[in-house]
Amino acid sequence: MEKKYVKLQTEIPGPKSKEILERRNKYVPKGISNNCQSFVKKAQGALVEDVDGNHYLDFAGAIGTLNVGHSHPRVVRALQEQASQFIHTGFNVMMYESYISLAERLCELAPGDFDKQAAFFNSGAEAVENAVKIARKYTGRQGVVSFTRGFHGRTLMTMTMTSKVKPYKFGFGPFAPEVYKAPYPYVYRRPDDMSEQQYSTMIIEQFEQFLLAEVAPETIAAVVMEPVQGEGGFIVPDAAFVKRVREICTQYGILFVADEIQTGFARTGKYFAIDHFDVVPDLITISKSMGAGVPISGVIGRAEIMNAAEVGEIGGTYSGSPLGCRAALTVLDIIESENLNDRAEKIGERVLEKMQLLADRFDGIGDVRGLGAMCAMEIVKDRQSKTPDKEAVGKIVKAATERGLMLLSAGLYSNVIRLLMPLTITDDQLEEGLQILEEAMEAVYLQDPALPVGGE
């Protein structure tokens, strides 16, 4: 298939990007990672152009932030209109209606037949931090449980809750107290002699044992779970596990918190991924695609829980900014009017189909998995040993970037290729991106550098 969207004028990165990269390396610390070494000039939908005139397809979506795509015209108009009226007053100084309208709509969309309230912040980590604060205030307890391989942020509390040591935690201790890690299902890496049903039963038993061996349930304020683990490798738990955790939370008065920061806003084919599991959380944390690239996050929850904090105990200077609220309201309009939940399902079906075809070709693909348009491949040395192959993933991502496709890795072992393309991507763009992914894998596994690059 001839490339229609990817157009490469220079090598990646090009001369202008290299010049800026020298300045970046001099003035910006190396601790801030950069997946692609080029610099963006403009972006629209699923397409990105860099300063050297190279055109890319974006299968990274700013780490799942752009479900409605880059610079959606309706979001741009809403931001322009808002900026022309006022940019910021501070909600705790003078309020604005968009904050109320957004809270109202999200409370109506969130699962649960009970009164809800919502509070807004700036980032996903802030949302999780505040969910913990609210849970502790409401329950009068201190303990917080997260899960192995989970990711919740880089602040002190959320870094503590995050499971992967390098690069997120190494050398940054001491960590916050009263945070515990529970087991989370990982069906692909279950014992070879164990069925999925047996494995599910074992993980549930391990969670119940955890509450005897590690922390008493009566001391736990909240259990915080990603309905699908994001940075952990796009790992989808079975419904029985999620339901049993919810039952135990209810039994002991523990708040069940669904971390929907990467899974929310139509990514999995529903507004909230937790809806796939027929489970109603007490609190939901949201961010990323909520604002189409404008920083905003939030916590939605039962009204009596959200109201536990007294005046002035939550919030912040920029929390729930007018620009963020207007962007989020427009995102909700776009999801509804463009049927992005249905679109996510269709994208996911096609992506998983293509990944399975690739798995039929390459023994290095150990597992293909996903929910809606949150899809991934786990790369291994071979399918017998299942030894993680981080090196191959790095080569595939690099080969894809050189061919004009932006990709991301993930996973505890950094051996997962995850796809987070905008849900507004066209069928032609999706197919071209999947073709480039295949070419990148051919270049690595067939070791043929002469395979097509970009628009050639």
UniProtKB/TrEMBL annotation:
**UniProt superkingdom:** Bacteria
The keyword Transferase is annotated on this UniProt entry: yes
What is the organism field in this record?
Bacillus salipaludis
Q: What is this protein called?
A: (S)-3-amino-2-methylpropionate transaminase
> Which PROSITE patterns does the protein's record reference?
AA_TRANSFER_CLASS_3
> What cofactor is this protein dependent on?
pyridoxal 5'-phosphate
Sequence similarity: Belongs to the class-III pyridoxal-phosphate-dependent aminotransferase family.
The reaction(s) annotated as catalysed by this protein in its Swiss-Prot or TrEMBL entry are:
4-aminobutanoate + 2-oxoglutarate = succinate semialdehyde + L-glutamate; (S)-3-amino-2-methylpropanoate + 2-oxoglutarate = 2-methyl-3-oxopropanoate + L-glutamate
Transferase among keywords: yes
Segments traversing the membrane: none
Keyword annotations for this protein, in alphabetical order, are: Aminotransferase, Pyridoxal phosphate, Transferase
Report the pathway entry: Amino-acid degradation; 4-aminobutanoate degradation
Q: What is its EC number?
A: 2.6.1.19, 2.6.1.22
Which NCBIfam families does the UniProt entry name for this protein?
GABAtrnsam (TIGR00700), PRK06918.1 (NF005376)
Cite the InterPro entries for this sequence. Answer: 4NH2But_aminotransferase_bac, Aminotrans_3, Aminotrans_3_PPA_site, Class-III_PLP-dep_AT, PyrdxlP-dep_Trfase, PyrdxlP-dep_Trfase_major, PyrdxlP-dep_Trfase_small
Q: Which PANTHER family match?
A: AMINOTRANSFERASE CLASS III, LEUCINE_METHIONINE RACEMASE
One molecular function GO term is: 4-aminobutyrate:2-oxoglutarate transaminase activity
